[in-house]
Structures are given as structure tokens and as C-alpha cells.
Amino acid sequence: MHTKDHWENVYTNKQTTGVSWFQEHAEQSLRLIRDTGVARSAEIIDVGGGASTLVDDLLLNHYSAVTVLDLSGAALEAARARLGPMASQVRWLEGDITKIALPAHAFDVWHDRAVFHFLTTKEDRQAYVDTVLRSVKPGGHVIVATFAADGPLQCSGLPVMRYDPAALHAEFGAPFVLVQHEQENHHTPFGTVQKFIYCYCRKQGS
């Protein structure tokens, strides 16, 4: 099954609250975004945001320039339906992060929880990093969360990569300065625990 077909099937046939990565509130992500100190008018993109509730909390915290990108149109539609009239305040993009052409130097904050670890080929990871380099403003903030080195081997039936902070930062390289990293013990709706790491980097430049 093509990757897009896989995710369309997931979000068409499962409740958004019944997938392993569901969070009622993406508290760790929201805190890290707040900690960047960017203005409420800063351009923020949530890569793989899909049906995540992070966008809800960003809007409720008065961030006014939020973009949500996901491979699955069904996931985006679920988020739009949940937000109701507030959905019009968000820019919604459907596309593959390894292929989509995002505008240059467009974003102050890049956030990704649980997309990068699905990129199991060097070519896809390089395409992702190239997009970050092109579309994040100099001095911008990059927050990426993946399964930790002792995290799951698969997610949603697909193989994943696992990282420690040094290995994850190494994927992005010298253009990005590692500011901090932290762990998350994510409690799934099924009563299991998945270990994540978050790396927060600054893109070089000003």
C-alpha cells in the first residue's frame, strides 16, 4: 500500500482518539513552542499535524499564523471539523513533506511530532532536512520529536527509526544548533507507554 493510502485508511477507519499517538493536549510541544519566545504573530508550521490537537491549543494561546501540513486529507478534515469556525484561522496543506515545495524562509517555528521517524531511507531524510533548511527563517526554531532509542520498532504497522538526541541532531547537521533535548513517556489510549525524544534546535543565521 502506498504511504498516502495507508494514512488515509487510518484516518478514515479509526477514531482520531483511538490511535497510539493521540494526545488530548500536546502539552510538551506547546511548552517548547512557548519557550522559543516567538511573538504570537510568528509563522508556525506543524508538520504531520493531521488530527493533532496542538493547533487547537496554539489558537487558544493566540498564535495567529499557524500552518498544519499532513499527508492525509482525511486527518486534516477531522481537525477542521473539530475546530469548526476556528478552522478558517489556519492554513491547511495536504502533501508529502519529502516532496512538497514550501516557500523559502517562511516559518519562524517548525514543529514535528512523529513524522521524521517514519523516514527510513537516507534520501527521504535528506529531502526533509533540505526542506527545513529552505523554509525556516535564519535564526528560526526547529522542534522535532521521534521515538527514543529504546522506543517502539514500529508504529501503525510501519517500520520506524529510533534516535538518541545526538543521532537526531546529526541528521540535521551543522546548520542547526542543538539548544535542548528532553524525553517524553507518552501514554497511549491503549495503556502502553512509548518513549519519545524532543530536540529543539536553532537554525544558524539572524
Could you name the key traits of this structure?
206 residues; alpha/beta; Rossmann fold; seven-stranded mixed beta sheet; 6 helices; 30% strand; globular
Question: Could you explain how this protein is built, in words?
Answer:
The chain has 206 residues and is an alpha/beta fold. The protein has 6 helices and 9 strands, in the order H-H-E-H-E-H-E-E-H-E-E-E-H-E-E. The strands form 2 sheets. A 7-stranded mixed β-sheet has the order 3-2-1-4-5-9-8, with helices on both faces. Strand 4, helix 5 and strand 5 form a beta-alpha-beta unit.
Secondary-structure-derived class: alpha/beta
Tell me, rounded to a whole number, the average pLDDT.
91
Query: What is the number of E strands?
Result: 9
CATH H-level superfamily:
Vaccinia Virus protein VP39
Spatial gap, N to C terminus: 43 Å
Cα-atom Rg, whole angstroms? 16 Å
The description of the largest β-sheet is: 7 strands, mixed
Helix and strand topology:
Blueprint lengths: L2 H11 L13 H9 L7 E5 L6 H7 L4 E6 L2 H11 L6 E5 L12 E7 L8 H14 E12 L6 E2 L2 E2 L5 H8 L3 E12 L5 E11 L3
Parallel strand pairs: 1-2, 1-4, 2-3, 4-5
Antiparallel strand pairs: 5-9, 6-7, 8-9
Helix pairs in contact: 1-4
